[in-house]
Amino acid sequence: MIFDTDGNTTIVLQEKVSLQTFLRNLQEAYPKFKNNHLIINLFSLGKLTSDDVLEFLEISNTHRAAGKSFVLVSDALSYNDLPDEICAVPTLQEARDMVEMEEIERDLDL
């Protein structure tokens, strides 16, 4: 698992593993970066379905409840099929922008 931390944001990715292995590794490593905004890079997982993304719902809800952003990045998703609780975007730049916008919203108490 690769962690790239910049300020208070951590980008997480792992190459060439199954979704279940990725999730297990993410949950094991979670205490290390639970205080950072998280961008989860899913490009290495190839084809994903909406059901696959729902596997991230629990950790996403936990992280967001703590006042931190949790953004999934994949260009292989049908965004219309995802629940509103999951924040997913097609590029890393959009993920960074989303974290920044959510941080501004939290600062403004929206």
Quick gist of this model?
It contains four helices and five strands. The chain is α/β, with parallel strands linked by helices and 110 residues long.
Report the span from N to C terminus.
34 Å
Mean pLDDT: 89
Radius of gyration: 13 Å
Succession of helices and strands: EEHEHHEEH
User: Could you give a short account of the major beta sheet?
Assistant: 5 strands, mixed
Low-confidence stretches: none
Beta content comes to 15-25%
Please give the order of strands in the largest beta sheet: 1-2-3-4-5
Annotation, overall tally of beta strands: 5
Description:
Helix content is 42%, strand content 20%. The radius of gyration is 13 Å and the shape is globular. The N and C termini lie far apart (34 Å). The longest helix has 17 residues, at 92-108. With 110 residues, it is an alpha/beta fold. It is built from four helices and five strands; from the N terminus they run E-E-H-E-H-H-E-E-H. A five-stranded mixed sheet has the order 1-2-3-4-5, with helices on both faces. 25% of the residues are buried.
